[in-house]
Specification:
Layout: E1 13-17, H1 24-35, E2 38-41, H2 48-55, H3 62-76, E3 82-85, H4 91-101, E4 105-111, H5 114-123, H6 134-140, E5 150-154, H7 159-173
Parallel strand pairs: 1-3, 1-4, 2-3, 4-5
Helix pairs in contact: 1-7, 3-4
């Protein structure tokens, strides 16, 4: 097989981001599979204190988030092909992840209507974050700016479509 015919593999780092119930894990897992990349579930990196706080209906503060964001970034560092999931609601959070990863990090921003997000979070079973916290996330959300390495996708699309669009976008930007 010639070099031109060889398959391209994602060598970079990417975070699937958005508010609760937008589909970060579903899209992230499928995207990682499509890219032959390692998947990092950001919710699993929360310290117990964060989980307890959210479970009791209290939103996290920035101070609560910094160690968690650093853990996500660190989990992306040094890996050839890594996809993570994290709300990454503010630009400074995305910058903190990239700093901890010590590399460029691409973001796939899953966006949706308030109604669809509320419907999804109300239907979600077995997650520590209650539906009451969706509003607090929407309040602090800073959509990625034009100068950020981000692709905005509409969650009304099927997960398979979202993962395929993200894959094509990432491969078009990945440095080999």
């Amino acid at each position: 097989m010639s070099m031109a015919e060889s398959p391209r593999f994602f060598k970079g780092a990417c975070v699937v981001m958005g508010v609760a119930s937008c589909g970060k894990t579903s899209v992230g897992e499928l995207l990682a599979e499509k890219l032959s990349a390692h998947f990092v579930e950001g919710d699993r990196l929360h310290p117990a204190s964060n989980v307890a706080k959210m479970s009791s209906g209290n939103p996290l503060s920035d101070e609560d988030r910094w160690p968690w964001l650093a853990a996500i970034g660190t989990s992306l560092a040094g890996r050839e092909g890594a996809v993570g999931s994290c709300s990454a609601l503010k630009r400074v959070y995305r910058e903190a992840i990239a700093k901890a990863a010590q590399r460029e990090v691409y973001f796939i921003y899953l966006s949706g209507s308030r109604e669809l997000l509320q419907e999804r979070i109300n239907a979600r079973q077995g997650h520590f974050m209650p539906p009451s916290l969706l509003e607090s996330q929407l309040r602090i959300l800073e959509e990625p700016a034009a100068d950020e390495l981000a692709l905005k996708l509409d969650i009304a699309e099927p997960v398979t479509v979202l993962a395929q669009r993200a894959k094509l976008w990432l491969l078009s930007r990945d440095k080999i």
